[in-house]
Amino acid sequence: MQGKPFNIHHLFDFSRSDIQGISELAELALDLRWSWNHSSDQLWRELDQDLWQQTRNPWIILKTVSKDKLIEKLGDPAFQTKLTELIRLKGDLSTAPAWFQATHSQSTLNAVAYFSMEFMLSEALPIYVGGLGNVAGDQLKSASDLGVPVIGVGLLYQQGYFRQVIDTYGRQQALYSYNDPGQLPIVPLRLENGEWLRLKISLCGSEVWLRTWEVRVGRTRLYLLDSNDPANAPVHRAITNELYGGGPDMRIQQELVLGIGGWKLLAALDINPEVCHMNEGHAAFVVLARAGDFMRRNNCSFEDAMAVTRAGNIFTTHTAVAAGFDQFSVPLMEQYLAIYAQKELDIEFDHLMSLGRHDPANESEEFKMAYLAIRGSMTINGVSELHGSVSRQLFSSLFPRWPISEIPVGHVTNGVHMPTWDSEMADAIWTNACGKNRWRGELSTMSQSIADLSDETLWEFRQKSRGQLVDYTRNRLFRQLTLAGYPCSLIEYANHIFNPEVLTLAFARRFVPYKRTNLLLTDPYRLVKILRNPDFPVQLIIAGKAPPHDEPGKQLIQQWVNFIQDYQLQDHVVFLSDYDMLVTEMLVQGADVWLNTPKRPWEACGTSGMKVLVNGGLNLSELDGWWAEAYSPSVGWALGDGREHQDFGWDATEANELYELLENKVIPEFYTRNSNGIPVRWVERVRQSMAKLTPVFSANRTVRQYSEQYYIPAASRFNERIKGWSIRAIQRDLKNRWAEVAFRTLQIDNANDAYKFHISVWINGINPEYVKVELFADDLNGGAPMITPMFLQVERAADGAHIYLASINTKRPVGDFTPRVVPAYKGISVPLEDNHILWYR
Ligand SMILES: *Cc1c(COP(=O)(O)O)cnc(C)c1O
């Protein structure tokens, strides 16, 4: 995957491509490593200071500055030296064995294809909305740091997500900027002969051309597809216009492009990933594409192909409520997939539909992408511990009669790519304490090195960080007011708002109901009193977009803007418009406290709060998502009682709790200083939060966990299964015979706290090696159940039944233990691939 050098003549017109040294500059400009490693910033700044300030996109600079300027700079020995040095470093980084090569050299894993509707890598490539893209982008970057062979697959949107303007009435206006591919840090994917790789997929009987693009992200690659090919009909060109735009019709086409087009793209590049990782159900059509491909290559049935290929598929769910699952109506599915089912998969349309239905036989039921993903995967995971357990509930009905604790959904808590979100100052502090390569391997010694930092160092760091945020806020607000058309006299005040010494809270997120973005406004007077306290003042920065057609969401924004105006709080509160990655970066680097008030358990994980950790910011958050597992009293503050509440009154209770936390805990701690002016308890909390939480909630940990617990096992499972796929015959046999499997007699001998169970089971001719009998007992504390295997004692007793035996030593009542029969054959994942189960009672 190291990637060949670019052919320079494909990148620039003739006048530019012959400049000596331009290839090296292009190599740097087209590697998104610059989004987290700032060693090349100086070069871009030297080439065009203004453009760099405005775009932070080296590729635009390279394409824009004059030829003379390029020649002049490339002729400058200092510039040349720096460039040569950076190219050498880049070469070293991309070839040196990284964590994966050093730790898992024996693994059979060659490639993981990571499918996602959005990737948040840089503001220079705006193809994301929020959290989901953040997870994808940050994990791709960490995979690069760690050398894990992950390849991203996504879509290139002509417009991405909307840009937000707040007008003088506080109303959100949506603008759609054009993503000019010539100025994005991406290049067309070209074949050996220089031809642009274009792919053809079939939609409703029409051929649709997809263009392909490559994004370099350090050692990893992201491949993007778009349909804006002049050879397409206008309606097809528009498929990839807008992220999450349009209705279900647009969405299903986008998801077909992603899943089916994405798989074709990999095939065209001769990439055969053992593992496909679906980031949310949007990507689930890849399950079909992968199976279809396998069918053709191996000349087998669709079901056989599914049984083999699913062994390499991994599904990560991000949804916390059933209503959140992507679903498509029967007619829509029929329109887009009826022909595909017959022609490509050789199955009836109803068969395909059954893969996305809760009840496969219910012909009126819509198609849920998450169900397809589940039926096409070998592992499913949620994105925090709490979300794992919420997801086990959500999906439990697919596994009737199975205990919730055994619903096959695990969890890998998300993390963020720390080098992307740390400030220059934070980087310096961490480099000093933990070294330059700290995010490229294991993180075991990190906590101690950070815990050793002095109060003075930490407080100075925090003071400066807040100061920079205040400067940024003033500048940004000035620009925002100018653009919104405020009169000059009003705009001027932006230069004087806020105070770098004042406790600074930030609240930035999408304005959707479950985030409860206006919880702080429950009692406006009380909030005003908190902000305006003359002895212990507080300042607050708000940012966030409401979905473009969501009127209630937009009103919530307006409510904030009105609040600021009505109470003349311009000096204490700002609403920054157009929340995006750059705004996040500034906020998480400078804020003292990051607020988050979602309605539990809707925040599957949440990642924005993790971004403050490395920068010494603290979290005050609902005990939901990641914070439910990260929180302890020494690292931050928790809202809520760690339970779900349906009643409406609960929001008011939590609002009150939020005010009380601020009034009695957060604010006093910040303003209680020692004789050197240092808030010692606050600084201790910062230290604990940085030391304890940063390593754990880094994408480094997340990607290592995915690698070891999911990718590597999935690759070997897939390779195992591809060798012999008799599994389908057994599956069918069990299906035919299961209905008559029955318990016969149970005898329990009881002696000195030990029970001896004998049970006879009629297994109806099933090979006894394909089932197991066990004793099940719930854990009394809600933990993992106690499962005791029973041993086959007598095969075919007089009545033809099998007799199984087990002894247990326990003080628990015998009634706690229930015998059961479950499938168990050839590496099958039970109950995911075979959900049969028979209980004694
Ligand atoms: C990190 C980030 C998110 C995710 O934030 P959560 O509120 O934690 O889900 C969303 N949008 C942007 C711009 C981000 O940087």
UniProtKB/TrEMBL annotation:
<dbReference type="Pfam" id="PF11897">
    <property type="entry name" value="DUF3417"/>
</dbReference>
<dbReference type="InterPro" id="IPR024517">
    <property type="entry name" value="Glycogen_phosphorylase_DUF3417"/>
</dbReference>
<comment type="similarity">
    <text>Belongs to the glycogen phosphorylase family.</text>
</comment>
<feature type="domain" description="DUF3417">
    <location>
        <begin position="22"/>
        <end position="125"/>
    </location>
</feature>
<protein>
    <submittedName>
        <fullName>Alpha-glucan family phosphorylase</fullName>
    </submittedName>
</protein>
<dbReference type="Pfam" id="PF00343">
    <property type="entry name" value="Phosphorylase"/>
</dbReference>
<dbReference type="InterPro" id="IPR052182">
    <property type="entry name" value="Glycogen/Maltodextrin_Phosph"/>
</dbReference>
<keyword id="KW-0021">Allosteric enzyme</keyword>
<dbReference type="InterPro" id="IPR011834">
    <property type="entry name" value="Agluc_phsphrylas"/>
</dbReference>
<dbReference type="InterPro" id="IPR000811">
    <property type="entry name" value="Glyco_trans_35"/>
</dbReference>
